[in-house]
Design a protein that fits this description.
Rossmann fold, binds 3,4-dihydroxybenzoic acid, alpha/beta, about 20% strand, binds magnesium ion, about 220 residues
């Protein structure tokens, strides 16, 4: 049998491809220090978001679910000086921690942290320039609401990434609770809604067994 060495592989790939960065490390440390859940994206996934933004020439990025701004820093650093990340965070304490981490990373002027529930904040973004990249990483129960807004606030060509679509394999279960139901509804929407073309990848890293969906707004 093949030895289960995926954690060694994650360490190897991360240490090979991801340079140490004080501000990113501090943002991870701040989660435990400030009592936030340690559910930031893995470094290799943070860099994937960063590269997707650069590959697509993104100037406007929407993030739903800031937490401590780890992924936000990766995204902000992918943008030109006049680029903007709008990141929505429902928990005021998370938003305060995120703002400190963004300051420390030197990207605070490129990021607008909007405090509030996505369902309340997203309608206020209507009428602005379309977003080029949307990262959905908040309460999974609302994934279909967030996907609808991603399409409405995007344009043909907008890239949408949805975090946590595998949930340690629970995604295949039809009775695994509201969060998994939300993930499944989101994936069904990506299949059925003509505004999207989508795929998904499983991930196995320091955050465990999970996955991301990647969609194109068509
Ligand atoms: C959870 C949420 C996340 O966004 C994540 O990446 C991991 C876990 C959670 O709510 O358990
Ligand atoms: Mg997540």
């Amino acid at each position: 049998p093949v030895p289960a060495r995926w954690d060694d592989v994650d360490d190897y790939l991360t240490s090979t491809l991801i340079a140490h960065d004080d501000a990113l490390a501090a943002s991870i440390a701040s989660l435990a220090e400030e009592g936030l859940p340690e559910i930031e994206v893995a470094p290799l996934s943070g860099k994937l978001l960063h590269l997707l933004a650069r590959m697509t020439g993104a100037r406007r990025v929407l993030e739903i679910g800031t937490l401590g701004a780890y992924s936000t820093i990766w995204l902000a650093r992918a943008l030109p000086a006049e680029g903007r990340v709008v990141s929505i965070e429902a928990e005021p304490h998370n938003a305060a921690v995120a703002r400190r981490n963004l300051e420390r990373a030197g990207v605070a002027e490129r990021v607008e942290v909007r405090e509030g529930r996505g369902a309340d904040v997203l309608p206020a973004l209507e009428g602005g320039e379309p977003f080029d990249l949307v990262f959905i990483d908040a309460d999974k129960e609302s994934n279909i609401v967030y996907l609808d807004w991603a399409a409405r606030l995007g344009r043909p060509g907008t890239v949408v990434v949805v975090d946590n679509v595998v949930r340690s394999g629970h995604v295949v279960e039809t009775d695994a609770g509201a969060q998994v139901d939300g993930v499944r509804a989101g994936l069904a929407m990506l299949r059925d809604d003509p505004r999207f073309e989508a795929t998904a990848l499983q991930t196995l890293d320091r955050k465990g067994w999970d996955g991301i969906a990647i969609a194109l707004v068509v």
